[in-house]
Amino acid sequence: MVFKRKLVISSAISLAVIAGVGAMYHTYGGTPVTEAAAAAAPPAADVDVATVVSRSITDYQEYSGRIEAINDVQIRPLVSGTIVAVHFQDGAMVRKGDPLFTIDPRPYQAEVDRAAAQLASAESRSGYAASDWERAQRLLSDNAIAKRDYDEAQNANREAIAAVKAAKAAVEAAQINLGYTAIAAPVSGRVSRALLTVGNVVSTGANAPVLTTLVSMSPIYASFDVDERTYLRFLSHDSKVTVPTWIGLANETGYSRQGVIDSVDNRLDTGSGTIRVRARFDNADGVLVPGLYVRARVGGGAPHPAVLVSDAAIQTDQEKKFVLLVDKEDKVQYREVKLGDQQRGLRVITGGLQPGERIVVNGMQRVRPGDPVKPNLVQMSGDAAAATGAS
Fold this sequence. Notes:
Structural class: alpha+beta
Oligomer: single chain
Order of helices and strands: HHEEEEEEEHHEEEEEHEEEEEEEEEEEH
Distance between the termini: 90 Å
Domain Multidrug resistance protein MdtA-like C-terminal permuted SH3: 306-366
Family: Belongs to the membrane fusion protein (MFP) (TC 8.A.1) family.
Coiled coil: 136-177
Shape: elongated
Keywords: Coiled coil, Signal
Subcellular location: Cell envelope
Helix content: 25-40%
C-alpha cells in the first residue's frame, strides 16, 4: 500500500511538471524558454547606422593660408621738398606709370638749368683747349715750340675733356632728381590711402616717410605651410607646376579657384614640421586682397576608389582605431580600421571596411560587440557630396 501511494504521488508531480512546461510552450509560441534565459537576453538598443561611403577620389591635403601680393611696394620720396599734388583716390586701381604724387619741382628745375649752363661753359673751354693742342702739335713738328709748352697744351685739353664729362654727369643727376619730383606707380595694382597730403614737407634718407602703399592684384599669391608628407609626395620633384592647387574663401564651402604651385621654400621648419609653399592664382575680378584668409587644397595623382566614414564614428582603443560594425543579423561587431586622409568632410579608410557595410554613427556608448541592435539608417555625417548631390 505504501509503495502504491508513493507511485501515485510521483505520477501526480510528473503530470504537474509536464502541464507547466506545456503551458510555457503554449505561451511563447511553441518555443520552450526559461525565465532565467529570458531575463539574460539584453534588449536591442536603438542606434543610428550609416552605410560607408564609396566613391572615386583624388588624393589631396587641406591647409589654411593667406593671400599675398606678388608686388607689395612702399612709396617713399627720393627727393626732399613740399608735396604740391596728390593724383589718386584712396583705394583706386592704378596702372604702372600713373602719377601718384608731385613734389615741388622748381628747385630741381633750377638745378638742371644751372648744370646745363656749366656744361655749356665746359664745352666751350674744351673746344679752345682742343684747338690750342692741335696748334701745339703743328709747331712741335716744326721745332717751333718748346716741349714743355706742348705738354701743357696737351694736359689742358685732357682737363677740358674731363670737365665736360663731369658737367654732363651733373646735368644728368639734376635731371634724375627733377624726375623724382613726379612720383609714379612702379607697378599696376591697388593703391592705399595717401598718408601725407598736399602741403607736407618730406625728406629723404633713413627717415623718409611712407607716402602710400601699392599692391599688385592679378596674378596673386596664396601662401600656406604643408606638412612633410605632402611635400615628399607632391612637391619634392621639379614639376611642381603640374600639382593641382585650389583655394576657397571664408564665405565658400568649396574651392572656387584653381592655380599652380609657384615656389617651395628652401628648408623645412623643424619646429612645426612644415615647409612654406606659395601658389599663384588669377585675380582678374580683384576679389582676392592681401591678408585674406583662404583654405588651400593640394593634391595630385589619378582618381581611385575609396571608402569613407565620418570621423565621429571612429573610436580609439589604446593605439588602435576601430568602428562598431552592424552585421546582417543586426548585431554589433568590433572592426579595427586603418585611417587615411580627409576628403570633403569624411575620413578615408585604407583598411578594415568594405563598400556597403554599415557602422554605428550614433549611440555607440549604449552597445558592445555582440549586442543586438535596432538600426536606424541615416546619412553619413559630413558627406559633402551626398548633401550637395555631387558624385
